[in-house]
Amino acid sequence: MDKVNRFLIEELKLNKDDVIVVGCSGGPDSMLLMFTLIQLRKEIGFKIVCAHVNHNLRKESKKECIFLNNWCNLNNVTFETMTIENYGDDNFHNEARNIRYHYFESIIEKYNGNYLMTAHHGDDLIETIMMRIVRGSTLGGYAGFSQVLNMGDYSIVRPLIYLTKDQISKYNKINKIPFVIDKSNFKDKYTRNRYRKYILPFLKKEDVNVHEKFLRFSKTLESYSKYIDKVVEELCFEIYNNNSLDLNLLLNEEYIIQEKIIYKILENYYEDDLILINNRHVELIFDLIKSNKKNTYIYLPNNIKVNKNYDRLSFTFESDDVNDYEIELINFVSLPNKKNLEIVESWDTNGNEICRINTNEVCFPLRVRTRRHGDKMSLKGTNGHKKVKDIFIDKKIDIKERDMWPIVVDSKDNIVWIPGLKKSKFCKQKTEKCDIIIRYY
């Protein structure tokens, strides 16, 4: 713990005016971080805010939230919490992480915080680096995660990066720090858990201080990555503008610079969804660049189109080319695809050309519009969601037709129905209660 305390006092230079928001699950790691900060607060006097996210996936979640709230009250720590009510992303861990950090950012803003601290430790860093190596990543990605990440108005800080999981367990036992255990952390179905259970023990058997070697490795790669980022930032002003890349200028650079420029462009498009992109996608882009074809293109995840036109490479959302429309659905709508939507009094069939709705379950007025990037629909008969893009693919709908296909939504933009293709959870069977019937023809 000496390294952790020295880092907080000497390197971070915490002072009495600081406001620290701690992302705390109530588990062993985050409770040690909370305990450590509370001890330092006695000397320095800064403010601590505990931000807890209830992922709402286990029956124990509510009890864990109550436990943490009570503990914070006993230790004079401000407690904030939120519950994730619905998940819609195909990648649960990615979505949960995005929700957590957006929430933490809102708490930082609420309390004018200087730091967001999380309890990531040395073992977490090893796992992340190993997973990135196996999966493929960028130079910065292979570094794992930063100990301090400047976010502009505040910094994300991981003070426990010097410690292993075993050391954390020992400190908790010595100091009698209470915590909760998330049993899902032991299930082999999660990738990180498999690395934790099978890879880390082997590495630690080779060298008990292997986490320190990985930390040095991480910081070295991070410093190289930052230098290259600086070079790439300057070059991008010259060779990339209006979503278009000058291939002649790009190919004059060293390959590592070329690759970094491509990744930087993709980061701008994918933002929180960057996890969807890996080395294979970048290789596809370079295959496109090297192709003898003068005009050709590929599609990347989330409908991002990369188009080669002679010596230019452009990046666009497929939906950028859509002829957008949005029309309120009252009684009858004539659609741009030469089809019609009509509210009828009754209908005998129950196919995808008919949608029955209970007005108590949707928010009026209804509207019909074209698809939008990231559209998802709650599926009938399940608790899941499906991307509209994937529904079009499953139904083998031509790309040009997708751009004009009608989507019926309510006033909260919940997708009620994709006429002729798919029904949502809001669509009723003939035997179920409904008071509006819409026909597509």
Describe this structure in words.
The chain is α+β, with helices and mostly antiparallel strands. It has 3 domains: 2-216, HUPs (Rossmann fold, 3-Layer(aba) Sandwich), CATH 3.40.50; 242-320, Uridine Diphospho-n-acetylenolpyruvylglucosamine Reductase, domain 3; 326-440, Phenylalanyl-tRNA Synthetase, Chain B, domain 3. It is 41% helix and 21% strand. Strands 3-2-1-4-6-5 form a 6-stranded mixed sheet, with helices on both faces. Helix 9 (210-239) packs across helix 11. It is globular and about 75 Å long.
Question: What is shown here, in short?
Answer:
By secondary structure, the chain is α+β, with helices and mostly antiparallel strands. It has helices spanning about 1-10, 30-45, 60-75, 90-110, 120-135, 140, 165-175, 190-205, 210-240, 245-250, 255-270, 280-290, 390-395, 400-405; strands at about 20-25, 45-55, 80-85, 115, 150, 155, 240, 245, 295-300, 305-310, 310-315, 325-330, 330-335, 340-345, 355, 365-370, 375-380, 385, 405-410, 415-420, 420-425, 435-440.
pLDDT averaged residue by residue:
89
What structural class is derived from the secondary structure elements?
Answer: alpha+beta
Estimated helix fraction = 40-55%
Number of helices: 14
Instruction: Please give the order of strands in the largest beta sheet.
Output: 3-2-1-4-6-5
